[in-house]
Every structure is written in C-alpha cells, then in structure tokens.
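User: Hey, quick favor. My workstation is busy. Could you predict this chain's structure for me?
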Amino acid sequence: MSILNYITWNVDPEIFSIGPLSIRWYGLLFALGFVIGQRILTKIYVAEGRTEGDVDVITLYMIIGTVIGARLGHTLFYDPAYYLSNPIKILMIWEGGLASHGATIGILLALWFFSRKQKLDYMWVLDRIVIVVALGGALIRLGNLMNSEIIGQPTNVPWAFLFERNNEVINGVRASADPRHPTQLYESLSVFLLFVLLYWLWNKYRSHLPKGLLFGIFVTALFSFRFLVEFLKENQVDFEDTLALNMGQILSIPLILAGIVILIRVWQKPVAVQPDGKRLEAHPVGSSK
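Assistant: No problem, here it is.
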C-alpha cells in the first residue's frame, strides 16, 4: 500500500456569493486581522494609560496605510510598466495584487503621521503596533493559502501541497501538476509565532522594555525569514528569473539591516518612554535621572 506523500489542496477561495456580492476567504481573513488586532491593541493601550478612542483612530490610519501601501508596492515593485500605462488598474484592488513590503512602508508612514498628530513617541507606537501587525500578517498568508497563490517550488516532502486550483504555467508546466512547498503556510506559522513572542514580551516586561526592542525584533525576524523562504517560492513575475535574488529578497535586505541597527542601538543605549507613549528625556533604562 502506498502512503500519500502530499496533501491535495482544492479549497474554493469563495465562501459564498449572493448575486454580485462575493465573500472570499482572503477578504475575510484580511478583515479579521484588523478586527482581532483592534481588540488586542485596545487591551495594550488601556493597560498603558491610553484610551479606546486612540485605538479607533490608529486603526483607521493602519487600514489606509496598509491598503494604499500594499497596492502601490505591488504596482511599483512588481509590474510598474503595466500599471503606469493603465493607471486606472491601480484602483482595482479586487483583481488582486498586494505587496507586503509596500504595506510595511505604508504603515510606517501612516503611523508617523499618527504619532505627530497625537504627540506620541513614534517608536513607542511602532513597538505596540507590530504585535498586531504580526497577527494580521499570519492571517493574510492564510488568505493566500486559501487562494492557492504565492506557491512554492516542486518538492517531494511529505507535507507538500498539490494546488489543484492553481492554473499558472511555470517553465512550461502547469503549477497544479506537481506537489509544492506550502510557503504561505510556512510564513503564516512563523509570523504567528513572532506574534506570540512579541505579545509575551510586552505582557511580561512592558514596564521595562526599552524603546525600539519590539520593533527591532519584528523587522529583523520577519524579513530574515521572508528572505530565506523566498528560496523555496516560485517567482511572482517573469523579470525575477533574470535576477540573482528575487524582488521579495531585495526589498527585505534594507529592512533586515534597519532592524539590526535598531537592536544594536537598543543594546548599547536602551531608552525608556512613559507608559502612555509620551516622550521622556532620553536616558538609559534603569537610570535614576
């Protein structure tokens, strides 16, 4: 008797439809990231002296920054010629095409504006928000799995997925012909574990956490894993086949370096901020000043 050495994946991306209205797994999981994240962030903010109203405001900034950044990131990083010649297509998000690196840039800019508006320490805001961003990222990658997209390369590992609904033709072969690495699941699980780590650190040590520690851990760990898992993925666009590293890896490198620099600075000179996020005079954590 032969043992099944792969998992057949044939999930319908659409949960149900009513007339022209279609509810899809990706959209549901994307929205759940914000809904659950808002509840967790509310707990964090209230515990640190902020209000639930602050969470409503930052959630709005996050939604705008994520959607605009992810969409522009995809259009500019992966297919600029097409979208610049068809600019109306940039607005058609329902057709697909969101880039996590673009979302990162969009979130960073949105939260910078939020911090200035609310007179909060920017790094304090980032240290808290990355906790829920990690959870949201894990759910979005599950959405990619439900869409049978962003697939891995062919493999014979026993946990390989046969993506029956993926009709891409890669190197002359239909993607659904071979079992492949479930790279969406790899990323989802890794980012969920990162969420657990960040939340645990905040929950246990929040009164002693130096500014930038959680953000530095998040950026370094997230994009280091992203860099590595890209070796197991199929390239998303044709021009990546001519590159030594694909676009996901190229865009990850500066973020990894930025995270390492932040962690080194935290290690060399940890700086505290007030629990409610307002800026303190810079001094080492534990100093009597």
